[in-house]
Amino acid sequence: MAIEVFNRVEKKYLINSEQFNILSQRLEPYMNLDEYCSNGEFYSINNLYFDTEEDELIGRSIEKPVYKEKLRLRSYGVPDSNTYVFLEIKKKYKGIVNKRRTTIKLTDAYSFIENGIIPENEMYLNTQVLKEIKYFLDFYRPKAKVFIKYDRLALFGKDDENLRITFDKNIITRRDNLRLENGENGEKILEDRMYLMEIKVPVSFPLWLSDMLAELKIYSNSFSKYGNEYRKTMKNS
Known about the structure:
The protein is an alpha+beta fold. It has helices at residues 17-27, 56-61, 106-115, 127-140, 207-215, 225-236, and strands at residues 5-16, 31-33, 43-51, 67-76, 84-93, 96-105, 143-157, 164-174, 187-188, 194-201. Strands 1-6-5-4-3-7-8-10 form an eight-stranded antiparallel beta barrel, surrounded by four helices. It is globular and about 50 Å long.
């Protein structure tokens, strides 16, 4: 069963292809590939992000408040109506990320988000998470606002599986056809030679990782996929 509750520190880094090639080789003695990375290949992740009519959640988020939260629907690859996907609520307080999610059939997810209909007699559902999301839905009355897709290579620590490093590329967004089953088309918001790296740990980085980043002159960056998409949309409008 997939892990449904996360508490961790997350740091982001924008790196170029040269840094990615060097770093991915350096990480091999310490990290294993995620199960989704078949033959070491990137896999696609598709997301729908939900917000209020006035974009209150993302507007507040880019101001870097002490507390923020967001809701998204996520699939691995392009789903169909019967595919099981993840419905996630993500909160961040003083730098600590709490993510709670449940597996749910795509059609049931739409019915729940749009009409408040909770699926019955489904053993795969995390009912506690659904209750939290139901409160979020009742409070914010959100709707789908943006689709974001990217290709990901994911690693986890050999000595500590809670250490995770991901590399995302080909970040594509759109604000129409807001259904996960409608494909992966859209506009790129990251240059072709660039990667967004995220390091996720329960508390602090292991010393070997901190030393490796310092040696390669890789420094943290506050890049947000949704945040950058929102800024670009506001600028163009």
